[in-house]
Amino acid sequence: MKVAVLKGGISSEREVSLVSGEECAKALRSCGYDVTEIDVTRDLWTQLENADPDIIFNALHGDWGEDGRVQGVLDMYGKPYTHSGVMASALAMDKHRAKHVLRAVGITVAEGGLFDRVEVSKSHPMNPPYVVKPNGQGSSKSVYIVQNDSSNMSAAIAEDKEMGEEVIVEAFIPGRELTVTVMGERALAVTEIIPQTDWYDYEAKYAKGGSVHIVPADIPHEATQLCLKWAVEAHKALGCRGVTRSDFRFNEKNAASGDIVNKIVMLELNTQPGMTPTSLAPEQAAYVGIDFEQLCRWLVEDATWPR
Fold first, then answer.
1. What is the pLDDT of residues 163-198, one digit of tens each?
2. CA within 20 to 30 Å of 282's CA: 91, 181, 271, 289, which one?
3. Annotated catalytic sites, by residue?
C-alpha cells in the first residue's frame, strides 16, 4: 500500500512538521508500507498526482496544515487521509469559536475574546494577568503573558504581525500544565508537563530537555477522570477524527477542596499533535502499550475519505 506523508509546508511550524513527517515515514516503512515523503508546497495537487498514493498521512502543523485548508484539498483529491476533516480542523484551529463549542457542552474554558492586535498593544483589554495569542496558530509561537508592567510586551505585540490583525485575549490561568491524547474515542492518559523555561513555550515544547513529562500525572483521581472525560467530549463536540491532544490547567488552590470542576480549565484542542521524539501523543501511546510504529499504523488504518 502506498502512503504519502505530508510534511514541512509553509507555516511557521514547518521545522517541527519536517521532523514529525520524517519520524512517521520511518515508522510506516518499518510496518511495510511503500512511503513517499512530500514536502508540501502550494502545488500540493500536482505533488499528490506524482506520488499517486492510496492513503495520505497528514503530518503538517500550523496554518495551512491543520486549519482545514489542506484538508479541503485532500477532500477534493478523493483519497483516504488521516486526522480530522475540514470542518473539525477549521473549528479547532479557531480558538475563539472552539471555546464557544466547548463551553456549550459543559467544559470550563478561560474567559476572554477577540481583539484588534494594535489596540491590545495600546491598553489593557482586561485586568492583568492575561494571555495574548494568535487565534489560529499552535506550538506556542507569538504568545505573550501580560502582567501589570507591560510596556515592553506592548511594543512586541504591536510589532508581531505574524499574530494576525485579530488576536485572542484570555485570562491567565495559573496552575499545573496537563495534557490528554485521544485516539479514536479513547483517552489514553494524563501527562503533567513541567517546563524548564518560565512557561510551556515553543522551546519547552520542542527543544531537547525543554520540559519534563510525568505520565501518569500525580494528581487526584477525580482530576484525572475529569481531564480524560473532557478530552473525549471535546474531541466529539468539535467533530474530530484520528488522534487529538487536549491541554488543561489544574489549579489546586482554586475553589473549594472538593470542587474539582472549578480547579480545571481546558486551554485548547490540537487536531495534529506533534509526532517528534519529544512529543506527548506518542509518549502517552507508549504508556498504554502502543509503540510508535503501531500508532502510525493505526492512523493509516483509521484514514477515510471524506472525513
1. 889 999 999 999 999 999 999 999 999 999 998 766
2. 91
3. 13, 139, 206, 245, 247, 268, 270, 274
